[in-house]
Amino acid sequence: MQSTELSVEFFPPQTPEGAEKLRGVHRRLADALAPQFFSVTYGAGGSTRERTFATVREIAATGSEAAPHLSCIGSTRAELRAILDQYAEAGIRRIVALRGDLPSGVGMSGEFRYANELVEFIRAETGDRFAIEVAAYPEWHPQARSPRDDLLNFKRKVDAGASSAITQYFYNLDAYTHFVEQARALGVTVPIVPGIMPITSFTRLARFSDMCGAEIPRWMRRKFEAFGDDAESVRAFGLDVVTQLCERLLEAGAPGLHFYSMNQDGPTIEICRRLGLARA
Q: Model-level pTM greater than 0.85?
């Protein structure tokens, strides 16, 4: 359909109603966009392990490629080995390998500290059985000591065997292009796919961004604040901003787009329709 590869992220639903809603969202996104894969998040400390696996298995059963997130903080080698065996038996071909976070109030535990150790472990245990996606941070990980340290951490993940990378979302094109240039200068050759966060609520976006360190440019923040409670204006402006960002990313040579859907289909489909990447 198109040369631009698309992928979409879900989180595992907590209720039967949420699961039923997600089935419809997945079906509409699959029909409209034919994404390369759907990824499914993994709660802090593996707190959504069973729900993640159930969601992944259901997506895969429809014929779509499903890519479970897998984090290593708080996990042992034996636990991760068992999870990898489960995914292999289920026919999963792709994993998003992350360091992950511990649930609030829980001390450091497990046999791994960093995502590169998880990537190395997956490769040692399974060879080329899985394509491995890793995270990248164009505006730097909030816990990194410096931009240089964060870039070197990213390179370690790639050197350990990552197949490609998905970035944290951002709204500053220069952050992405500069990060890619710096990674290429270090010899990183894997695809670095920009993560895209559609905007439907400024309040929610501001909360997420404060937690993960993603910058909302001042001009965007002021414009959203000026809309106040006018949800339709927030939605319309958000669609315009994100569509223009995607256009500029693709013009700059981005290898694809990865959408953080928040288990909604409408905003992602509309953005892709405007980009000419959606079926009629």
A: yes
